[in-house]
Write a structure and sequence with these properties.
Elements (H helix, E strand, L loop, with lengths): L1 H7 L3 H11 L8 H28 L6 H16 L9 E5 H17 L6 E6 L4 H4 L2 H16 L3 E6 L5 H15 L4 E5 L8 E8 L3 E8 L7 E5 L2 H15 L3 E2 L1 E5 L3 H13 L4 E4 L13 H7 L5 H17 L5 E7 L2 H5 L8 H4 L8 H17 L3 E7 L6 E6 L3 E6 L5 E5 L2 H15 L1 H5 L3 H18 L1 H5 L1
Parallel strand pairs: 2-3, 3-4, 10-11, 11-12
Antiparallel strand pairs: 1-7, 2-5, 4-8, 5-6, 6-7, 9-15, 10-13, 13-14, 14-15
């Protein structure tokens, strides 16, 4: 790929783009040196992207949103009654501080309404104005929690053309609020030039914050706080026209959406594409029928419908193996963890409001079934890795189709995405975890050997436990 770009990027604008990206003078390097520079840059980008995804997966705050909402609302309302709002139909604020102040006034006015409102939010301006000042970020979060506590629903259009880190950070910042089920995230699927940037925060019939900037000149932007009903109505119509051209960025599932999540998961798995899955332990897809009834029962899946979902998933899994590759990334737990029955069943927190764990015997049977699958299907592979500490997430990606991402620690939340850039980012993250050599040339014989040695080590160290 690097050689191709070095040979074919000959136009002035292409050479300028390479010069800027690689931070080199194009006239001072040979074609061979240019190819090496491009290859190095591509490798660094891949590592940076994988690091960004890893930070996102390990970063979601452990926050019980609903309890915080209801507990803090009376205190917030009392405190904010003394906060004097501007009375003009149109108020003007300047720069970063002005944007923060206008936004605070906007949320306070929404919070002051007696009935639940609807919020329409969009901004492709840099998010530093919201996150750089920790006091304002905390205040913003507090006000948003209060607004949601009143049952306000939010439609937000995320900007997927941002730098990946910035995009993931924006989603991460909203994650605790997503758990309320009151937020619908969207994205605009087509490219924009990114020069003229806008912010639109609208509460129809109440207030609006309107701002714009050019490039990164947000420090000098003008921010309008509007209460004029005709103007708010016009901006609401403008937002809705834009929203009609957008697509849902993701579907969000919490523990109360269990059946809807399972239906979505089935539809996702019916799609034919190469797949990679990484859970906290072992996936339910590869769980043998010899142990699934007991585990499903402990996970609250006693009725026939839910057990039927599991059987259908396994049937689809085996059918997909006829045409596509499926790789499971398997973490290796220390023997003491296995003995104590502390290996968690993946996604059990989503099924019940608690964690379910493998017995030592169940865990060995699941590992043994992985060996069977590796011997049976040429298209099934595993990557045995050392257990990562605090790996409370699941990523299940299908190449070029979509990804399902779950934060599995309480309270659990699952995101289903099919936006191209995010799908590619999560796919590349999993490939990076496997390693390019092992992904391109999987060695089932070696993985079987490692699995069998691991199973033997468990049995040998705790033979009485296993025999019992």
């Amino acid at each position: 790929m690097a050689d191709y770009f070095a040979r074919h990027c000959t136009a002035d604008y292409q050479r300028k783009a390479l010069s800027d990206a690689l931070n080199i003078s194009m006239g001072a390097v040979s074609a061979g040196e240019l190819s090496l520079s491009i290859a190095k840059w591509l490798g660094e980008e891949e590592k940076h992207e994988a690091k960004g995804i890893g930070g996102f997966l390990n970063g979601p705050p452990e926050i019980k949103v609903n309890s915080r909402i209801t507990g803090k609302l009376p205190e917030m309302e009392q405190k904010d009654k003394s906060f004097k709002l501007p009375q003009e139909e149109i108020s003007v604020f300047y720069g970063l501080e002005g944007k923060r102040l206008a936004t605070e006034y906007f949320l306070l006015e929404v919070l002051a309404q007696s009935n639940p409102q609807n919020l329409l939010l969009y901004s492709d301006e840099a998010t530093d104005w919201m996150t750089a000042d920790s006091k304002f970020a905390a205040r913003w979060a507090q006000l948003m929690i209060g607004v949601l506590a009143k049952g306000t629903r939010i439609k937000i259009v995320h900007t997927v053309s941002r730098d990946l880190d910035e995009m993931l950070n924006a989603i991460l910042q909203w994650m605790p609020l997503y758990m309320t089920g009151l937020i619908e995230p969207y994205y605009y699927p087509k490219k924009r030039d990114g020069l003229f940037k806008q912010t639109r925060f609208i509460s129809p019939g109440v207030s609006a914050v309107i701002a714009g900037s050019i490039g990164n000149s947000i420090d000098y932007s003008v921010n309008w706080l509007i209460r004029n009903n005709d103007a708010i109505r016009a901006y609401t119509e403008e937002f809705n026209q834009y929203l009609n051209q957008c697509k849902p960025l993701m579907r969000i599932f919490t523990a109360k959406d269990k059946e809807l999540y399972l239906e979505t998961l089935i539809e996702f798995e019916k799609e034919r594409s190469n797949s990679i899955i990484k859970t906290e332990s072992l996936s339910l897809l590869t769980m043998p029928e010899t142990i699934s009834p007991a585990i499903m029962s402990r996970m609250g899946m006693k009725n026939g419908n839910l057990i039927g979902y599991q059987k259908e998933r396994i049937k689809i899994f085996e059918k997909n193996l006829q045409t596509n590759s499926i790789v499971e990334i398997v973490p290796k737990f220390d023997l003491e963890t296995v003995k104590k029955g502390k290996v968690k069943v993946s996604l059990s927190d989503m099924m019940i409001d608690d964690s379910v764990y493998y017995t030592q015997e169940e865990y060995i049977q699941h590992l043994t079934h992985l060996v069977h699958l590796l011997k049976t299907y040429e298209t099934f592979h595993i990557k045995f890795i050392e257990e990562a500490p605090a790996s409370n997430y699941m990523v299940y990606a299908k190449e070029d189709l979509g990804a399902i991402i779950a934060k599995t620690s309480p309270p659990p939340v699952v995101l289903a995405v099919n936006e191209t850039n995010l799908t590619a980012a999560f796919w590349d993250f999993l490939r990076h975890m496997i390693g390019e050599k092992d992904y391109q040339s999987p060695n089932n014989t070696e993985e079987i050997r490692m699995l069998e040695e691991y199973i033997h080590a468990i049995k040998e160290k705790y033979p009485k436990n296993y025999e019992r």
